[in-house]
């Protein structure tokens, strides 16, 4: 009897262990199956990204002739870009008086998204002859390499003698040598490659000004124009809201 | 002679005024034309958004059967969801001990994006019989109305007596009446409609956990499994990186 009882107890124990083992095994199998299903979901995500990229590329191409036409029209309006920049709250904060003078020679801005869009963008600034630098165009471009690491590079600015706006001549005390100090300037942005993955000015120009620069040009241009064209401003504001809303929505 | 000179001067002045007027007129025309071009660009943006929405909708449909299959498999693993939540750094920070106990009865989570996607989403939490509340499911949903204003609403939780985890019984001093105080609890989230446009927990569940809950379940489940299935974890981590990268890229 005692032996039988022991045997029964041992069986129960074995059964219990078997059941536990069985449950463990079933869970592991379920995990493996979830993993397989997850792979399918990831494949679908990948395809969705590719299709969306194609749509973006298609529309980037379709927008090009309009951007070109817009650039031509903008070139007829003196000081268009410097006005748009001065009227933009974030960009305006980066401009000192001399920047504004130099930017009066800015005739054309272009934003180019690279063909696969994900990999980066480039902003070109075209200038007329000016007393500050020799360059006809200055650009800054942003790249993501294959591992997703961001970097940026810019055109070197060929400043005319004593005109480098990123360096200011410090007030000299008598007997001390004059020195050059770093100065906060819009043009300092071309030297700054510290946060290429989230370059604030780059993104403001690309995502906020470039989609609709007219609204910033119009914000507070001459009172006359403002009153005469109130409807236009209202429409611009509305369009901007729609644009922002679209941005917010596509981000979610 | 004097009269002739005056006349010439007046002519010059008139010419000057005429030229200025002419320039003003040309600029206004250019602005109007920019506005027209901008309308075309906006129309293209609108079409691009619509096409992208269609792609998203198509893939949302294609993902459904996999999400369903995944839910079935997850239901075979006890404590899957509470483990995933506990292992998620941001969600974990919102859980107190009693929340974790209650969430052991959480059998199924579902995220539904509304058909036009932009307009919002709903998260359903399904529970088994439990000592805390009567509900079989609790949900919170987020909406954007036509003007883009966000709002949220939740299922009212039917707490069992004395079990409301959003209220705690305060320590009573002798002679004082016992009172109920607000308590920080995961379940308090269902009462919080203060920031429906950027609900942190809602977005973490929708955008971070729901796309791949297995990775969070696996992060630190039993050491045994961790060692045995190191490759899987590595693969999950890699998949997560790809997913995050994709997110970052689609945001730019």
UniProtKB/TrEMBL annotation, chains A, B:
Keyword DNA repair tagged: no
Region annotation (Disordered) ranges: 1-29
Subcellular location, principal: cytoplasm
Keywords associated with the record: Cytoplasm, Nucleus
Basic and acidic residues bias locations: 8-28
Membrane spanning residue stretches: none
GO terms for biological process, alphabetical: nucleosome assembly
Location(s), subcellular: Cytoplasm; Nucleus
Pfam families recorded: NAP
GO cellular component: cytoplasm; nucleus
SUPFAM superfamilies in UniProt: NAP-like
The family this protein is said to belong to: Belongs to the nucleosome assembly protein (NAP) family.
Protein name as it appears in the record: Protein SET
